[in-house]
Design goal:
This protein has 148 residues and is α/β, with parallel strands linked by helices. Helices cover 40% and strands 18% of the residues. It is built from six helices and five strands. It has a five-stranded parallel β-sheet, with helices on one face. α3 packs parallel to α5. Bound molecules: 1,3,4-trihydroxy-5-OXO-cyclohexanecarboxylic acid. The site of 1,3,4-trihydroxy-5-OXO-cyclohexanecarboxylic acid has 9 residues, from loops.
Length: 148
């Protein structure tokens, strides 16, 4: 049993209608519902937050230790490519995390190839569509059960 925090960055509230050829037709609410169901089956508590405001995302990360979060799954969206502040927030907490991108960022514009977070992450999953979140949850479960 662990507490898993799922964080989604800017514009991911538009999932399902935003550039569906790249990000698919599934809404964020549907992604979160299926993650909640799977987390429950695996015996974990799953908390989800999405924000379009970078300062709010920094606070979610900073507050994770007080909230006794064991693992973080984050799709930082564009902040992966821009935010040294988000990287610093992850460096300040001692919580393992996986970085998810729905699209294959390495097959897209060169400015998407670099992530400020990936060096700090346990792993990265990209190009699997929204199924990448399920893969990350499975990996988080494996990480938490091998740790305890
Ligand atoms: C994304 C990829 C990012 O480059 C982009 O800015 C997004 C979504 C993805 O999930 O594929 O907003 O993180």
């Amino acid at each position: 049993m662990g507490r898993i925090l799922v964080l989604n960055g800017p514009n991911l509230n538009l999932l399902g209608t935003r550039e569906p050829a790249k990000y698919g037709h599934t809404s964020l609410a549907d992604v979160v519902t299926s993650l909640q169901q799977r987390a429950q089956q695996l015996g974990h508590e799953l908390i989800h937050q999405q924000t379009n405001a970078e300062h709010e995302m920094l606070e979610f990360v900073q507050q994770a230790p007080q909230q006794k979060i064991d693992f973080i799954i984050i799709n930082p969206a564009a902040w992966a490519h821009t935010s040294i502040a988000l990287r610093d927030a992850f460096a300040a907490i001692n919580i393992p995390f996986i970085e998810v991108h729905i699209s294959n960022i390495h097959r897209r514009e060169s400015f998407r190839h670099h992530s400020y977070l990936i060096e700090l992450a346990e792993s990265g999953i990209y190009g699997c569509g929204v199924y990448g979140y399920q893969l990350a949850l499975q990996a988080a479960d494996n990480f938490l059960s091998t740790k305890s």
